[in-house]
């Protein structure tokens, strides 16, 4: 497939070509950069909503309902399911989620899982590139869901204009723990599985933690309750942030961290090359350390000096 | 506190000094390197056992029982609880775990949580340094438990001589998912919470996945069942690996990846310096990209060139 037809296919919003482009992004196929180069002025055309939260709170069901709501309002919708590639959540699990969201008959919904290949920063770049493809294809609303939990999620936050944190009714202790990290980053708090009795108590605790100003929405994705309210909350947050200049600020921050990510990536490849070329030597040094002849700290220092002169 | 008294305190196995040293490691206090330098020949004195598995399978209870078993056999025991610093599992949660394992009356048990400060690689280095402190203090057996789940755990594997993967009775699907990553790295498989009926079924599925040769142990840490068997399995695996040269091989691999980690760390700090000094410029470039005037790819290329000449 030549790049010209991929480019045209994307511009026509054809899902097969969007899929092809994102696969090329995942695989690091350099021909995609030609395509992305021509799309440079299509950046930032969509509203980007991040959905995160611990595993098992029903994020995917929620998104499938939000997608339907967005379609009712005539938006052209893209969904990225991001897999931080934990050894536990394999790519196979995401396939079902994608199928849950997409409907074959509706060409204006495209859902896609994105997996890391190789090192950490690869995912960040893949998300940016995939978003640009979606924007170039005419998507007006993009949802990003993170699958799993942990460090990497806070990085995903940077990709979204408005972030919703989905929680289940928890005990107070767990809320305390959540307070440490995820709480501060979210714009909207969602208590899902609202068919359970304890969600009101969770709501009260949550309110104390996040303060009066923050938006809390109760949903039951399974029973289709609260979806409209959540969608409205997300949109009005977006409008509010758009007027106040917050969206612009966030997108600038996002782009800056993408540039840093690229620098990092370049660095990494240099380091990898050095390591490959010095494999035997590092093996020998490791032996010396394990024999107690040289400390790791001393050995590290010497290697770093060698690396410096390698770059120079 | 001067480094000489810390050194002597550690050599006497005094928990207060071990604690002080590990805090210095966590905080990156450079005086600790003087101490570690003098301990270079104490490396590798302990048998190191890694315990990992998904959250909620009872790893901490299991370790507290294994520690008691090790004490019955007159081992001097160290425990490191490693927190990959997910925003969800805060440091506060680890305090309880430490208290569960340690007994005030027994000076030959030292348990400690380790948290990442800052970037990814910091944890790897802190573990190595903390292990050296424990070895210098006379520990003969060290358990490393990973708290949480994900990418980072596979890195923790490299720190241990023998790795046990703890599982609960699962459905077949989840076992399939586990197959992708954690399965291949473990030496011993533990099915915990054996008071549940389904564990035998899990055992059969697990056996099919891991093959005939692998050791599967059934435990119920809560009811104190199977602990001796697990301990024996870990020790005999260690002896087997020791004779076959596998331990030596693993430790060499571990040390090599520590050196790589150090190089990486050095790199990172250089990059950070560059980014700080070019903050304004990156802000400006980000704006240009968001206005569609330049592609991210083009901007990245230019920044990398600038960075290269920065190092030179």
Short synopsis of the structure:
2 copies of one chain form a homodimer. Chain A has 14 helices and 7 strands. With 312 residues, the first copy, chain A, is an alpha/beta fold.
Word description of this protein:
With 312 residues, chain A is an alpha/beta fold. Chain A is 58% helix and 13% strand. Chain A folds into two domains: 3-244, Rossmann fold (3-Layer(aba) Sandwich), CATH 3.40.50; 260-311, no CATH class. Chain A has helices at 3-11, 15-27, 31-38, 59-72, 91-101, 121-136, 151-157, 172-179, 182-185, 199-210, 227-244, 246-277, 279-290, 296-311, and strands at residues 47-52, 77-83, 109-115, 141-146, 162-167, 188-191, 215-218. In chain A, strands 3-2-4-1-5-6-7 form a seven-stranded parallel β-sheet, with helices on both faces. Mean pLDDT of chain A is 83; it is low at 86-92.
What is the fold's blueprint, element by element?
The structure is a homodimer of 312-residue chains.
Chain A: H1 3-11, H2 15-27, H3 31-38, E1 47-52, H4 59-72, E2 77-83, H5 91-101, E3 109-115, H6 121-136, E4 141-146, H7 151-157, E5 162-167, H8 172-179, H9 182-185, E6 188-191, H10 199-210, E7 215-218, H11 227-244, H12 246-277, H13 279-290, H14 296-311
Parallel strand pairs in A: 1-4, 1-5, 2-3, 2-4, 5-6, 6-7
Helix pairs in contact in A: 1-2, 1-3, 2-6, 4-11, 6-12, 8-10
Q: Give the strand content of chain A.
A: 5-15%
Strand order of the largest sheet of chain A: 3-2-4-1-5-6-7
First-last Cα distance of chain A: 41 Å
Would you list the SSEs of chain A in sequence order as H and E?
HHHEHEHEHEHEHHEHEHHHH
Average predicted local confidence, pLDDT of chain A: 83
Give me the CATH fold name of the largest domain in chain A.
Answer: Rossmann fold
Oligomeric grouping of the chains: homodimer
């Amino acid at each position: 497939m030549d790049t010209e037809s991929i480019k045209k296919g994307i511009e026509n919003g054809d899902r097969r070509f969007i899929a092809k482009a994102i696969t090329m992004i995942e695989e690091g196929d350099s021909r995609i950069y030609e395509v992305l180069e021509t799309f440079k002025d299509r950046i930032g055309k969509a509203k980007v909503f991040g959905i995160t939260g611990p595993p098992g709170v029903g994020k995917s069901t929620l998104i499938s309902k939000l997608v339907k709501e967005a379609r009712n309002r005539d938006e052209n919708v893209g969904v990225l399911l991001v897999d931080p590639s934990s050894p536990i959540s394999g790519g196979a699990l995401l396939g079902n989620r994608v199928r849950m969201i997409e409907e074959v008959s509706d060409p204006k919904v495209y859902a896609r899982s994105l997996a890391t290949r190789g090192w950490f920063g690869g995912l960040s770049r893949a998300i940016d590139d995939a978003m640009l493809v979606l924007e170039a294809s005419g998507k007006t609303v993009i949802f990003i869901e993170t699958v799993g939990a942990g460090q990497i999620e806070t990085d995903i936050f940077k990709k979204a204009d408005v972030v919703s944190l989905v929680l289940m009714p928890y005990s107070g202790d767990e809320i305390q723990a959540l307070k440490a990290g995820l709480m501060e980053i979210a714009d909207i708090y969602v208590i899902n599985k609202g068919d359970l009795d304890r969600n009101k108590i969770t709501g009260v605790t949550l309110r104390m933690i996040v303060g009066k100003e923050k938006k809390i929405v109760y949903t039951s994705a399974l029973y289709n309750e609260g979806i409209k309210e959540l969608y409205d909350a997300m949109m009005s947050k977006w409008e509010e942030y758009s007027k106040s200049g917050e969206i612009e600020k966030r997108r600038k921050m996002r782009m800056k961290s993408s540039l840093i990510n690229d620098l990092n990536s370049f660095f990494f490849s240099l380091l990898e090359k050095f390591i490959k070329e010095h494999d035997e030597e590092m093996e020998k040094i490791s032996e010396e350390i394990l024999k107690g002849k040289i400390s790791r700290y001393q050995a590290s220092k010497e290697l770093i000096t060698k690396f410096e002169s390698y770059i120079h």
